[in-house]
């Protein structure tokens, strides 16, 4: 995972896919989840226009409330958002599974704030762009991690693992606690197998 961004940086995109051929597996221990109090702090900070930019709030809320992966957040396009029905329709990057997700009011409000007032005017249809020139799309999970870490700090939540993976795991656990069926959670998360969700 660390070698792929390096290869992209040095312009050797021809070797990026070759890294996968090595078959090296990372261990994925089950993460702890955020406490309800921390979820509330982060959500409150994201709802406050004076505390966070609409872009950073939207990115964090997408991960926290929908469980989207970083790769799906950076690949999100303006055409994926159905403003009238307040849903998100996309094909997930990792599994190629289509998914439709509801966008809670706090998220749709901050997302609209970003698109209408903060988002740089460019010809690129990706939703999230760099806030400073050049206004290119966000690139990878490292960018999302940096943004969510700054949101956690602004919310007064001290968690060294404040990234999209923690937010995603928290979203899944909250769905489970709300008695949502495991196959539904699996579909929302875009898991290819329900067994992955069971962990």
Question: Please, could you describe this protein's structure?
Answer:
This protein is mainly α and 199 residues long. It has a 3-stranded antiparallel sheet with strand order 1-2-3, with no helix packed on it. Helix 3 packs across helix 7 (141-155). The longest helix has 15 residues, at 141-155. The mean pLDDT is 87. It is globular. It is 50% helix and 6% strand.
How far apart the termini lie comes to 21 Å
- Main sheet strand line-up: 1-2-3
Uncertain regions spanning at least 5 consecutive residues = none
Q: Provide the gyration radius in Å.
A: 17 Å
Main beta sheet: strand number and arrangement? 3 strands, antiparallel
Give the H and E element order.
HHHHHEEEHHHHH
**Averaging pLDDT over every residue, what do you get?**
87
Record field, number of beta strands: 3
Task: Summarize this entry quickly.
The chain has 199 residues and is mainly alpha-helical. It has helices at 3-9, 16-21, 36-47, 54-66, 70-75, 105-118, 141-155, 164-177, 182-189, 194-198; strands at residues 81-82, 87-91, 98-102.
Structure keywords:
199 residues; mainly alpha; three-stranded antiparallel beta sheet; 10 helices; 3 strands; globular
